UniProtKB/TrEMBL annotation:
Superkingdom of origin organism: Eukaryota
Record keywords: Calcium, Cell adhesion, Cell membrane, Cleavage on pair of basic residues, Cytoplasm, Glycoprotein, GPI-anchor, Lipoprotein, Membrane, Metal-binding, Repeat, Signal
Membrane topology, as annotated: Lipid-anchor; GPI-anchor
UniProt record, GO biological process: adherens junction organization; calcium-dependent cell-cell adhesion via plasma membrane cell adhesion molecules; cell migration; cell morphogenesis; cell-cell adhesion mediated by cadherin; cell-cell junction assembly; homophilic cell adhesion via plasma membrane adhesion molecules
Assembly and binders: By contrast to classical cadherins, homodimerization in trans is not mediated by cadherin EC1 domain strand-swapping, but instead through a homophilic adhesive interface which joins two elongated EC1-EC2 domains through a region near their Ca2+-binding sites to form a tetrahedral, X-like shape.
Subcellular location: Cell membrane; Cytoplasm
Subcellular location, principal: membrane
Annotated SUPFAM superfamilies: Cadherin-like
InterPro entries noted in UniProt: Cadherin, Cadherin-like_dom, Cadherin-like_sf, Cadherin_CS, Cadherin_pro_dom
Protein name, entry field: Cadherin-13
Function, in words: Cadherins are calcium-dependent cell adhesion proteins. They preferentially interact with themselves in a homophilic manner in connecting cells; cadherins may thus contribute to the sorting of heterogeneous cell types. May act as a negative regulator of neural cell growth.
Record flagged with keyword Signal: yes
Length: 704
C-alpha cells in the first residue's frame, strides 16, 4: 500500500478537536484481489464527544468498517472499482472519507484537485490566522437540517470577533444553502444537495470585529458535493439501428450502444457495464449477438452459416440492452434501450425461371406484351440482389422482340415491337436469360435455371392490300381533256396463301376530278384539272384510293396519289389599283403607279406590257410609262378640271400565246384647299360624255 496522504487540518499544537474523519482521503494500490477478512486500512473518526452511537457505511457492499475504524473485505473481491466511500455518523457528527484505488504506477493527483492547495499535497505552505479546510458533503442527505458539515478555525481565538461567510450558495443564488455560526465558525448546510446540479461551491470566509470591520481574510472555503449513485444510466441517442451483412464472419461488429450517467464519471456511480437482456426472435440461436460489457460494441457470435437471411424466421432482430452503473454490480442502477439489428441481404441466390419453357400466341401485325415470364429469387425484394434483368440471347435477329422487367412483380414482359408476318414465319423460338442487377457473390454462379425458352406462334389474319409504290406520284398538264388517263395503280395482297381478288375505289377526291376502274385500277379525269384551284397546294393535287380484298370480312388498304400540275397560260393578268385621286391644281402630275399580277406561273406572267387605249379629242391628256416588269406609272399631261375620268388601260402577259386584259382606271380630279381634298362629282364623267358626243358626230358625218 501507499503511505496514506494525510489531509492535515492544522498543526496539532494550534488546533482544537475537529469533528469528523481525521484523514479524509486515502490512496491505495490496487492488489490482484482483495481477500476475505483482509484489512485494507484503518480509519479514524472522532466527533469530539465520545463517538456515541457511531456507525459506518461503505459504498461497496463487499466491504465494511468495524467499530474501531478497520476497513476489511467481506469476501474475495477482484474488482472494487476506482473508489470507495465511507460515511460515518455518530450522535453528534457525521463525515465522509474517500479511498482511491490506483493502478500500478498511477499517480495520486485527485487529492490536489480536491483540496486545491499549493505546494505539497495536504500540507499548507504557511500558518494562517484562519484555517478553512475543504468540506466534503454527500448529496441527497435526509433531514433534519441544518446539519453541521465543518468548521472554520481562527488560530488567534474567537473572542470579540465574528465569522462571516459569502459567495454562491450563501448570499448569492442559490441563496441560503450554507451558513456559518458567527461565534464559533461552525459551517452548516440547510438543505439537501444535488451534485448533478452543482458539484462545487467556492465560498469566502473572513473574520470581522463587532463593528463589521474585516480583521482576517477573506480566505477561500471549498465545499465539494460527494456523488451518490442517484442517477440511472440513460440511452439518449436512439433509435438504435444496426446492419450486418448475412454470412458475416463470427465477431463482426454490428453497432455500438452508449449510455449516459449523470453521476460522477470518476466514480463507480457512473461506471457502466452493458448486457443483453433479451433477443427477439430466438432462432436460429438464442444468442446470436454479444455485447462488450465495457465498450457497448455488439458483435455476431454465431457462425456465418447461421447468419443466413433466407433461412431466418425474420431478418430483423431486437435486443433489449441493459446498462448498469456501479461497474455492473447488483446494487447498480439500470437503464434499458432496444437495439434493432437488420440482416442485410447479399446476392447469394441467383434468379430462376419457374419453368423451362413458356408459350405465347400473337396475331401478325400486332405489337405489345405477349407473355410474362416468372422467376423466383430468395433474396431481399427491396434490393438489387432480387431485381431481375432479362435479355434475349438467341432467336431475335430482326429485333422484333424486346423484354423488360415489371418493377412490381419482377416478371419479364416479352413484347413484340415490330409486327410479325405470318407469311414469312409462323413460329419463333427465343432463348431468354435472367440475371440480377447486383452481381452474385464470388462463390455463386448462374445455372441452367436462369435461362428459359419461349415458343411463339404467329396467327394469320386477313391483311389489307398494299399499294406499290405508296405514295404514288405523276405529273400532268392542267386543263387536259376530260377522260384522260392519269395512271394505273397497283396493289397486292400480303396474304399470298389465300388467293384473294382486289377491287379499287376512290376514297378521297377533294375536287371531284378523278375516277378509278374498280377492276384494273386505271385512274382517269372526270373534270378539268385546274392548277389554280384552292384544292391544289404547291402545284400538287392529292387524292386517296382504296384497295379492298375479297376476304371475310374484307380488308382494306389505302393508297395516296400526288398529281403535280404543270401550268398553262389560262389566266389573264389583273391590274391594281383601279382608283386614283389628284388635285386640280397639282404641280406633280404623276398620278398613280399601277401593278399587274397573274395567277399563272413563269413564263406565263411577267414581264407585262402596259398600254393606254386610243385617246380621242383634239389633244392628249395623259400617258403611261413602264417602270419595270410588273409596274407602270400614269402621268397627266396638264391640269384637269374637277371631274371623274375613266382611263382604259390594257395589260398583256408574256405567255404563248399572250393574254390581254383591259381595265378602266377611275381618276378623280378634286379641289384641294388647306390640305383638304373635295372630290364631289359636280362634273361627273366629263371625259366619258365628251367621247360619246364625238363618237356620235363621227357616225353622223359618215352617213352623209
Amino acid at each position: 500500500f501507499f503511505s496514506p496522504q494525510v489531509l492535515l487540518l492544522a498543526c496539532a499544537e494550534d488546533l482544537e478537536c475537529v469533528p469528523g474523519f481525521q484523514q479524509k482521503v486515502f490512496y491505495i494500490e490496487k492488489p490482484f484481489k482483495f481477500t476475505e477478512d483482509q484489512l485494507v486500512l484503518n480509519l479514524k473518526f472522532d466527533d469530539c464527544k465520545g463517538n456515541n452511537k457511531l456507525n459506518f457505511e461503505v459504498s461497496n457492499p463487499d466491504f465494511r468498517v468495524e467499530l474501531d475504524g478497520s476497513l476489511v473485505a467481506l469476501k474475495n473481491v477482484s474488482e472494487a472499482g476506482r473508489a470507495l466511500f465511507v460515511h460515518a455518523r455518530s450522535e453528534h457528527a457525521e463525515d465522509m472519507a474517500e479511498i482511491f484505488i490506483l493502478e500500478a504506477n498511477e499517480k495520486p493527483v485527485a487529492l490536489k484537485e480536491i483540496l486545491k492547495l499549493e505546494g505539497n499535497l495536504g500540507i499548507p505552505r504557511q500558518k494562517r490566522a484562519i484555517l478553512a479546510t475543504p468540506i466534503l458533503i454527500p448529496e441527497n442527505q435526509r433531514p433534519p437540517f441544518p446539519r453541521l458539515v465543518g468548521k472554520v478555525i481562527r488560530s488567534e481565538g474567537t473572542e470579540g470577533v465574528k465569522f462571516r461567510l459569502s459567495g454562491k450558495g450563501v448570499d448569492q443564488d442559490p441563496r441560503g444553502i450554507f451558513r456559518i455560526n458567527e461565534m464559533n465558525g461552525e459551517v452548516s448546510v440547510t438543505r439537501t444537495l444535488d451534485r448533478e446540479a452543482i458539484a462545487n461551491y467556492e465560498l469566502e470566509v473572513e473574520v470581522v470585529d463587532m463593528n463589521g470591520k474585516t480583521i482576517d481574510g477573506p480566505v477561500r472555503l471549498d465545499i465539494s458535493v460527494i456523488d451518490q449513485n442517484d442517477n440511472r444510466p440513460m440511452f439518449k441517442e436512439g433509435p438504435y439501428v444496426g446492419h450486418v451483412m448475412e454470412g458475416s464472419a463470427t465477431g463482426t461488429t454490428v453497432m455500438r450502444m452508449t449510455a449516459f450517467d449523470a453521476d460522477d464519471a470518476s466514480t463507480d456511480n457512473a461506471l457502466l457495464r452493458y448486457n443483453i437482456l433479451k433477443q427477439t426472435p430466438t432462432k436460429p440461436s438464442p444468442n446470436m449477438f454479444y455485447i462488450d460489457p465495457e465498450k457497448g460494441d455488439i458483435v455476431t457470435v454465431v457462425s456465418p452459416a447461421l447468419l443466413d437471411r433466407e433461412t431466418m424466421e425474420s431478418p430483423k432482430y431486437e435486443l433489449v440492452i441493459e446498462a448498469k452503473d456501479m461497474g455492473g454490480m447488483d446494487v447498480g442502477l439500470t437503464g434499458t434501450a432496444t437495439a434493432t439489428i437488420l440482416i442485410d441481404d447479399k446476392n447469394d441466390h441467383p434468379p430462376e425461371f419457374t419453368k423451362k419453357e413458356f408459350q405465347a400466341t400473337v396475331k401478325e401485325g400486332v405489337t405489345g406484351v405477349i407473355v410474362n415470364l416468372t422467376v423466383g429469387d430468395r433474396d431481399d425484394p427491396a434490393t438489387g440482389a432480387w431485381r431481375a434483368v432479362y435479355s434475349i440471347i438467341n432467336g431475335n435477329p430482326g429485333q422484333s422482340f424486346e423484354i423488360h422487367t415489371n418493377p412490381q412483380t419482377n416478371e419479364g414482359m416479352l413484347s413484340v415491337v415490330k409486327p410479325l408476318d405470318y407469311e414469312i414465319s409462323a413460329f419463333h423460338t427465343l432463348l431468354i436469360k435472367v440475371e440480377n442487377e447486383d452481381p452474385l457473390i464470388p462463390d455463386i454462379a448462374y445455372g441452367p435455371s436462369s435461362t428459359a425458352t419461349v415458343q411463339i406462334t404467329v396467327e394469320d389474319v386477313n391483311e389489307g392490300p398494299v399499294f406499290h409504290p405508296n405514295p404514288m406520284a405523276v405529273t400532268k398538264q392542267e386543263n387536259i381533256p376530260v377522260g384522260s388517263v392519269v395512271l394505273t395503280v397497283n396493289a397486292t395482297d400480303p396474304d399470298t396463301l389465300q388467293h384473294q381478288t382486289i377491287r379499287y375505289s376512290v376514297y378521297k377526291d377533294p375536287a371531284g376530278w378523278l375516277e378509278i376502274n374498280p377492276t384494273n385500277g386505271t385512274v382517269g379525269t372526270t373534270a378539268v384539272l385546274d392548277r389554280e384551284s384552292p384544292f391544289v397546294q404547291d402545284n400538287v393535287y392529292t387524292a386517296f384510293f382504296l384497295a379492298i380484298d375479297s376476304g371475310n370480312p374484307p380488308a382494306t388498304g389505302t393508297g395516296t396519289l400526288h398529281i403535280t400540275l404543270e401550268d398553262v397560260n389560262d389566266n389573264v393578268p389583273s391590274l391594281y389599283p383601279t382608283l386614283a385621286k389628284v388635285c386640280d391644281d397639282a404641280k406633280d402630275l404623276r398620278v398613280v403607279v399601277l401593278g399587274a399580277s397573274d395567277k399563272d406561273l413563269h413564263p406565263n406572267t411577267d414581264p407585262f406590257k402596259f398600254e393606254l387605249s386610243k385617246q380621242s379629242g383634239p389633244e392628249k391628256l395623259w400617258r403611261i410609262n413602264r417602270l419595270n416588269n410588273t409596274h407602270a406609272q400614269v402621268i397627266l399631261l396638264q391640269n384637269l378640271k374637277k371631274a371623274n375620268y375613266n382611263i382604259p388601260i390594257s395589260v398583256t402577259d408574256s405567255g404563248k400565246p399572250p393574254l390581254t386584259n383591259t381595265t378602266e382606271l377611275r381618276l378623280q380630279v378634286c379641289t384641294c384647299k388647306k390640305s383638304k381634298m373635295d372630290c364631289s362629282a359636280t362634273d361627273a364623267l366629263h371625259i366619258s360624255l365628251t367621247l360619246i358626243l364625238l363618237s356620235l358626230l363621227s357616225l353622223f358625218c359618215k352617213s352623209f
